[in-house]
Design goal:
With 305 residues, the chain is an alpha/beta fold. It has one domain: Glycoside hydrolase/deacetylase (TIM Barrel, Alpha-Beta Barrel). It is built from 12 helices and 10 strands. The strands form 3 sheets. Strands 3, 4, 5, 8, 9 and 10 form a 6-stranded parallel β-sheet that branches. It has a two-stranded antiparallel ribbon with strand order 1-2. Strand 3 (106-113), helix 4 (120-130) and strand 4 (136-139) form a beta-alpha-beta unit. Helix 6 packs across helix 7 (176-194) and helix 10 runs parallel beside helix 11 (262-277). It starts with a helix and ends in an 11-residue tail after the last helix. Mean pLDDT is 75; it is low at 1-98 and 300-305. The structure holds zinc ion. Zinc ion is lined by residues 51-52, 113-114, 164, 168, 204.
Length: 305
């Protein structure tokens, strides 16, 4: 609350919204079938809204679309998603477990959206490398198209890459055809640049529709939001970013950051150190999903403010 006052955001209410949908189950052409479904009810008022400012030419789109994001949480709730809650069907073989999860361990997943960025992403990568931390990057197709080598560096450093659409579109303001096309082309670009097909999808602003979720599921993506918003897009201040994350972090948290802001890169070394001192281990989103399935200690959806 102190932070919020400091950044003068009256009326700020943070609920945490997080929704994960795993499918991929029925792939005719792959041997691995996966289906899991995790969902959260806590929502993020506003956070999903103005998720950020975009690098380069995307600012206008972002700002234009950021206007009516506050209703995101309500829309999500109205989406009838709760009705699916009972169907976490696990009908597959769990792939190789990357790490042995400690049921009482503290795990957290750092995520970086809207990159890759030619200046910030390398700094983020360097910090992650130095501190031996793996994270997840939700990339824009437009950025991957401009900086394919940077996307490859992210993958080569062992981080996970997810799809964040091509132009940072607002799925609630576009047709399903447009959304599907952006997801498809972005995955193609990521795969072309990195050699890895993304299996995670994060809708910009946290905005989606049931059709978008269905499309993602049918195409093998897990749709992933977040539970802790660093608000780096708003504060652009390393100290504020660190406070926001450390105050709200909990086991299983998914932390939203953006590798397009210098302050985010600046905040990262100290943030990681602090979380490590608190006993956190850093894992990727896929690992977090796997953890939920293996030790039933799934993503934590936030403790609110
Ligand atoms: Zn974004």
């Amino acid at each position: 609350m102190r932070v919020i006052k400091r950044i003068k955001w009256p009326g700020w209410v943070v609920l945490v919204l997080f929704f994960i949908l795993i499918s991929g189950a029925i792939h005719h052409f792959t041997s691995m079938k996966t289906e899991a479904y995790v969902e959260v009810n806590e929502s993020l008022h506003q956070a999903g809204a103005k998720e950020k400012t975009e690098p380069d030419g995307n600012e206008e789109i972002i700002q234009e679309e950021a206007e009516n994001e506050e209703r995101t949480a309500d829309r999500v709730k109205a989406n009838g998603l709760d009705s699916k809650k009972e169907e976490p069907v696990v009908q597959e073989e769990i792939p190789d477990v990357p790490i042995a999860f400690d049921p009482s361990g503290k795990y957290i997943a750092l995520t970086f959206d809207d990159g890759p960025h030619p200046n910030v992403t390398p700094q983020v990568l360097q910090t992650l490398r130095e501190q031996n931390v793996k994270a997840t990057f939700f990339m824009l197709g437009s950025q991957v198209e401009k900086y394919p080598d940077m996307a490859k560096q992210v993958a080569d450093n062992g981080h996970e890459i997810g799809n964040h659409t091509y132009s940072h579109l607002n799925a609630r303001k576009r047709t399903m055809v447009e959304v599907a096309e952006e997801i498809r082309t972005t995955s193609e670009m990521i795969e072309l640049a990195t050699g890895v097909k993304p299996m995670l999808f994060r809708p910009p602003y946290g905005n989606y529709t049931s059709e978008v979720l269905e499309y993602a599921e049918q195409n093998g993506y897990s749709t992933v939001l977040w539970s802790v918003d660093s608000q780096d897009w708003k504060s652009k201040n390393a100290g504020a970013i660190n406070n926001m994350v450390t105050q709200h972090a909990a086991t299983g948290s998914i932390v939203l950051m953006h590798d397009i802001h210098a302050a985010t890169a600046e905040a990262l070394p100290q943030l990681i150190e602090k979380l490590q001192m608190e006993g956190y281990q850093f894992i990727t989103i896929s690992e977090l999903l796997l953890m939920e399935k293996t030790i039933h200690n799934g993503p934590y959806f936030g403790k609110g403010i």
